[in-house]
Amino acid sequence: MDDKYLDFNEKRMHIFNELVKRYWKGDLKSVDDLNDLAEYIKNKYGFNESDMPFIRNHIRLAMGQDPKGEKSFDDELSVLNSSMKIYQPVVSKLEGPCKQCNSIYCECNELGKYESGMYNRLNETISCGYSDFTCDFGAVADKIEFMPVIDLLRDGDSPVYVTVAPAIVGQFGEEISMGKLRSALKLLGFKDMIEVALFADILTIKEAYEFNDLVKSEDDFFLTSCCCPMWFNMIKKVYPDIYDYLSPSISPMIASGRVLKKLYNNAKVVFISPCVAKKGEIKEPDLQGAIDYVLNFRELKEIFDALNLDFSDLYDDDKDQASFGGRVYARTGGVSFSVKTVLNRLEPTRVIKLKSLKVNGIKECKRVLDSLKSRKKGDPNFIEGMGCVGGCVGGPKTNIDLEKATRLVNDFGEDSFILTPFDNQNVMKILDQFNVKSIQEFMENDELKEILSRE
Fold first, then answer.
1. Please, which contacts does 21-25 make with residues 24 or more away whose CB atoms are closer than 8 Å?
2. For the whole model, what pTM was predicted?
3. How many other CB atoms are found less than 10 A from the CB of residue 320?
4. How far is the C-alpha of 270 from the C-alpha of 279, rounded, in Å?
5. Which end of the chain is less enclosed by CB atoms within 10 A, N or C?
6. Each residue of 373-423: pLDDT tens digit?
């Protein structure tokens, strides 16, 4: 086993850090500049000349591009500047380190070491079965989507909005408020930062209406589709017999992009996420175009570090955009709680009450979906699933532990002056842009229904 490969998930963040510094300053303009970066990484981490293809391919992944095996740098910068797109696959396999690895804990041992099919399966299963993939040797890694974002911010031709997952609170330190985070992102050049919890509020209202229409007896049940692409795709691909019970709603992330692009001409939208699966979700054929790029919490932390951003002097640009219910979408049970509060306002005398079942983690999600085949009258009729243990706060690309993240999300939710999605005047301002003057008109608006639904 070669120690130079160990903990490469951390080393690749250092590579990304150095890449950001140089590209942000305009110091990456040629093949020679890329070769200088590769040489710097080789010397810093004790690699050999024979490891240069591996290093070059990690630089390519950090640029959002595909690995090219043994090939030297060639057109990477011109591709970056011309296409502005990050293509599938989200996850790539790199040659080299596997031959050095003897780990009994390697995921390859479960899926079939050295089998090329493993890497194809990883790309499929991050959206319908695996919450994370790890390789301390750096043989498996996801693309990072920040380099084209730098170009967007630098050009200034389009307003670039950043929307953030509810789980983001506290991810960069408890002393860094959401208001300071907004100021930091605006300092980088983003037009504004918007809580995706605001769009969770909108979709909560939609799913409450759907539940009210579809669950009329003790035999009926409803599967929420909000938030988690792993939960949605697991049902779609593995349990097609219950797919009709799934809400047709898009995720709050996709809703944020579609709505912002409808409201602001030529807008671009970047989403900040706790997971890798969101990078795959925005590339699904029926969802493409809503979100331009996805970054995760770890990547954003590295960006702040690379640019030496000092939060202490930043203005606390605080905005109350979302309700308690929308903000706690970040943790297990949040969707159920939020939908129930709205349903109780819609139909307070409803005979068939919402009885929720909250499940998290892939194994538990599979177990519950299997059990629905033998569902009994009186069983829970609203099933909420999240692929990560604890919900999005337990995502694989978070910066803090699950317990702390859950506490901070709950505290941030309680800080909201907006109790439920029904009370959110920001929702009403958005609906007004679609000539919807009341919540009662919401589900009658064809344009909104199309925007907030999958094909």
1. 21/306, 21/307, 23/147, 23/150, 24/150, 24/306, 24/307
2. 0.94
3. 14
4. 11
5. C
6. 899 988 999 999 999 999 999 998 999 999 999 999 999 999 999 989 989
